[in-house]
Design goal:
The protein is of the alpha+beta class. About 40% of the residues lie in helices and about 20% in strands.
């Protein structure tokens, strides 16, 4: 039985490069609901119909068509920066400058928020393919 060799972040620089060059876009199906005075925003993100919902079950169980997602001030700021013109690296740099953090400290915060927004369906990602020679 062979054991898989574990890799660390430092040994997978290519993965970071690809992720940092990804372009983030707001989910076009999500809609802006409201903004609070404290900077929080609420988004309505469409949900998928579960695979087990077919007649006659679907006659009784009605899943919601959308789910409300509330973003705090930081999440709202990052979501607004994900406009399809910036890559993750430029968002990380902008966040670092705004909060007086190092690039690596900022990368941890931004990628955490971006990951959460992707899981919630508020963002989409566009990864540029490298030219193959």
């Amino acid at each position: 039985m062979s054991k898989k060799k574990r890799t660390t972040t430092a040994s997978t620089a290519g993965n970071w490069d690809r992720m940092l060059n990804a372009i983030l876009l707001p989910n076009q199906a999500a809609r802006f609901v409201r903004e609070e005075a404290d900077g929080r925003i609420t988004l309505a993100v469409p949900t998928r119909k579960p695979g087990f919902l077919f007649p006659p079950i679907s006659w009784v169980i009605r899943p919601p068509k959308e789910r409300l997602t509330v973003l705090d001030k930081t999440g709202a700021l990052i979501w607004r920066w994900c406009d399809g013109t910036r890559n993750v690296e430029s968002i990380v740099e902008r966040f670092a400058n705004m909060h007086h953090l190092s690039f690596h400290e900022s990368r941890v915060s931004v990628t955490g928020y971006v990951s959460s927004l992707l899981q919630r369906g508020a963002l989409a990602v566009s990864v540029q393919q490298a030219d193959e020679f």
